[in-house]
Design a protein that fits this description.
The chain has about 220 residues and is mainly beta. It has two helices and eight strands; from the N terminus they run αβββββββαβ. A hairpin with a 5-residue loop joins strand 3 and strand 4 (about 95-110).
Length: about 220
């Protein structure tokens, strides 16, 4: 007597359904394992917040004192390390119009203390341009800085005062190194400003606005 098993066949569509179910089960198991064993660069205890700082810088170019209005901000890790962007443009210098945009890194020492310090490094690309006509108002030719390009390296140190948990007053000093500017550019034909003229000490004051990211429920 012949066994009926030799003639038993599983339909193709049932094979496909069975195979799909097996794949779904396996993917569910793998996903469950990944949730428990995912490796990350930072520990789950690391807190990331957001910080933005409008600031005013005072400096001297070719013997004339001027102010620059700028900003910096980005992501803050454990209220200690800031990684972000920065930018600024001349506001009141009477003859040289300039601005920059780049990246910034900052280390904040003991941010929970009422008074504390921070140190930073700014790396940026900038541009300088003479005024075609004498500056007649504070906002005259503001942001009209497209001219001779340069690179900027600016380390600095700050003293900070916590006004509240989300607001900090910051004042500091930095030194701006400018390099790579074409001193013979037509955009500088009036002032003939040089890399050395643009380099120098900056005094800054600003307000840090912090924003903590709410944890996902």
């Amino acid at each position: 007597m012949k066994s009926r098993n030799k003639h038993f066949k599983i339909p193709a569509n049932e094979k496909f359904v069975s195979f799909a179910l097996v794949l779904l089960l396996l993917s569910g198991l793998v996903t469950g394992q990944d949730q428990d064993s995912t490796q990350t660069l930072f520990k789950s205890s690391v807190k990331v917040s957001e910080l933005w700082t409008p600031e005013v810088k005072i400096n001297s170019i070719q013997g004339d004192v001027g102010t620059l209005i700028g900003f910096y901000g980005g992501a803050v890790i454990n209220r200690t390390f800031l990684i972000g962007i920065a930018g600024g443009a001349n506001l009141s210098h009477p003859s040289v119009n300039y601005g920059y945009f780049g990246g910034i890194g900052q280390y904040i020492y003991k941010p929970a203390s009422l008074w504390h310090f921070s140190a930073q490094l700014l790396l940026a690309y900038g541009s300088a341009k003479d005024y075609e006509d004498p500056k007649s108002g504070l906002l005259d030719n503001f942001m009209n800085v497209s001219g001779a390009g340069f690179f900027l390296l600016e380390p600095g140190i700050n003293l900070e005062l916590n006004l509240s948990k989300k607001l900090t007053l910051v004042g500091g000093i930095s030194y701006r190194f400018v390099m790579g500017m074409d001193e013979n550019s037509e955009n500088l034909s009036i002032t003939h400003v040089t890399n050395e003229d643009m380099s120098g000490v900056n005094f800054n004051i600003g307000l840090k606005f912090a924003k903590e990211k709410k944890p996902k429920k």
